[in-house]
Write a structure and sequence with these properties.
Order of helices and strands: HHHHHHH
Radius of gyration: 29 Å
Number of strands: 0
Mean pLDDT: 74
Strand content: under 5%
Structural class: mainly alpha
Number of helices: 7
Distance between the termini: 91 Å
Helix content: over 70%
Shape: elongated
Low-confidence stretches: 95-99, 161-182
Number of domains: 2
Length: 205
C-alpha cells in the first residue's frame, strides 16, 4: 500500500506522463509518414514504440500508486511483464536493426526487470515502504527513458529514408568522374578508329 509521503510524487509523475503521451501523439501526427507511414524508417517505429511503452508504464504505475487501499505489487508486476515483452518485441521483432539504440534498449530492459523484481517482492511484502520507494525510482527512470527515445525520434532524418543507401559525396564525385571518362572514351575511340582506317599519322585524341 502506497504511503502518504509518496502520493504527491506519484500524482506529479502521472500528470507528467499523461502530458508527454499527448505530446508524443502530436509529434506522430505531425510526422506520420516519417514515423508510422508506409515509407517510415523501421528505427523510427521502434523509437516510437519504446517511448510509448515507457510513458504508459510510468502513467499506469503512478495512477495505481495513488489509488487508495491498493497493493502496488500486483499492478507493478503485470506492467513490468508487459513492458519487457514490448521491449523485446521492438528490438528483436523486425522493427529495427540490432545496432539501433542498443544501449538504451539494454537500459530500458534492466529498468523493467528491476520493476518486475520489486513488484514481486511487494506482492510478498506489501507493507515494505522501501520497496515502494524503489518503484518511485523506476517511474523516474521510465520517464527518463521515454524522453531519451523521444529526443532520438525528433532528430533529422538521414539521407535515404526509404531503405536505400545514399552514396557519400566522395563516392558520388568518383562516379561522376568515371562517367565522364567513359563518355570521353566513347567519343575518342571511334575518331581514333576512323583516323587509323584513313591511314593518318596524327596521334589519336
Amino acid at each position: 500500500m502506497t504511503y502518504t509521503a509518496l502520493t504527491g510524487f506519484f500524482t506529479a509523475c502521472a500528470a507528467v506522463a499523461g502530458s508527454l503521451i499527448g505530446l508524443l501523439f502530436v509529434a506522430i501526427s505531425l510526422r506520420y509518414e516519417q514515423i508510422l507511414g508506409n515509407t517510415a524508417r523501421r528505427a523510427n517505429r521502434a523509437l516510437e514504440g519504446a517511448a510509448f511503452t515507457a510513458l504508459t508504464n510510468a502513467l499506469l504505475l503512478s495512477l495505481w500508486a495513488i489509488l487508495p487501499r491498493t497493493d502496488l505489487g500486483y499492478p507493478a508486476t503485470a506492467l513490468a511483464v508487459g513492458a519487457i515483452w514490448s521491449t523485446l518485441k521492438t528490438h528483436y521483432g523486425g522493427l529495427t536493426r540490432r545496432d539501433t539504440s542498443t544501449r538504451l534498449f539494454i537500459g530500458s530492459l534492466l529498468l523493467y526487470v528491476c520493476e518486475l523484481v520489486v513488484g514481486f517482492l511487494l506482492v510478498l511484502h506489501p507493507a515494505n515502504s522501501d520497496l515502494v520507494y524503489d518503484l518511485a525510482y523506476v517511474v523516474f527512470g521510465a520517464l527518463g527513458a521515454a524522453l531519451a527515445r523521444s529526443w532520438q525520434l525528433l532528430q533529422p532524418e538521414p539521407a535515404g529514408t526509404s531503405g536505400a543507401v545514399s552514396p557519400s559525396p566522395q563516392e558520388a564525385g568518383l562516379g561522376m568522374h568515371l562517367a565522364g571518362a567513359a563518355a570521353a572514351a566513347g567519343r575518342a575511340v571511334p575518331r581514333a578508329m576512323a583516323r587509323w582506317r584513313r591511314g593518318t599519322t596524327e596521334p589519336p585524341g
